[in-house]
Design goal:
Layout: H1 5-14, E1 39-41, E2 47-50, E3 58-66, E4 75-84, E5 92-99, E6 102-110, H2 111-117, E7 127-136, E8 144-152, E9 158-167
Antiparallel strand pairs: 1-2, 2-9, 3-4, 4-7, 5-6, 5-8, 8-9
Length: 168
């Protein structure tokens, strides 16, 4: 849902009006590993934290971002492995981004429209889903960024909450 990486890619893809690059080579996700902890530390050193409430129906199993280090204005691919405990037919993604402690971006997107941009259609079935997002990271000054994304389902109920701290 860009829901961790869906959210990371939303951060990347939605901070500016960007289009998905057709020329980015198709990358295959490595074998996914389930990460049961609350904190996910990725190969690229950035920290993705699950701020979901107990009982939220979406669990992020694995997030992978390539290439690293992230570079402003350059393409990136994000692979997300999630498990849903319910079918999702619609919803929203609310996203906010801070540069340091300064708010620099806030917006709400239709979940199914964002999934469609990533090549996945609603409804998202119950069970394991793998989402691949390819975007160009917006041009931004170097520094520390903090993003928070909350995805909700067709009933307005929270699916997942994720925070991502990254440096450009």
């Amino acid at each position: 849902m860009r829901a961790v990486v869906f959210l990371l890619a939303s951060i990347a893809g939605s901070m500016a009006s960007l289009t998905t690059l057709q020329s980015i080579p198709t990358l295959q996700p490595r074998e996914w590993l389930s990460v049961p902890e609350e904190h996910y530390r990725n190969d690229f050193g950035d920290i993705v934290k699950d701020c979901s409430q107990a009982g939220d129906p979406l669990k992020v199993n694995r997030v992978e971002v390539t290439p690293f280090p992230l570079q402003s204005g350059q393409p990136l691919s994000v692979f997300i492995n999630i498990t849903l405990s319910e079918e999702v037919t619609d919803g929203e993604i609310s996203l906010s981004v801070k540069y340091g402690f300064l708010p620099v971006y806030s917006n709400t997107f239709n979940l199914c429209s964002e999934l469609l941009r990533a090549g996945t259609k609603c409804p998202l079935p119950k069970g394991v889903n793998i989402i691949t997002v390819r975007e160009v990271l917006p041009r931004a000054p170097p520094g520390n960024f903090h993003a928070k994304g909350i995805a909700t389902d067709q009933y307005g109920e929270e699916l997942v909450c994720v925070t991502i701290d990254f440096r450009l």
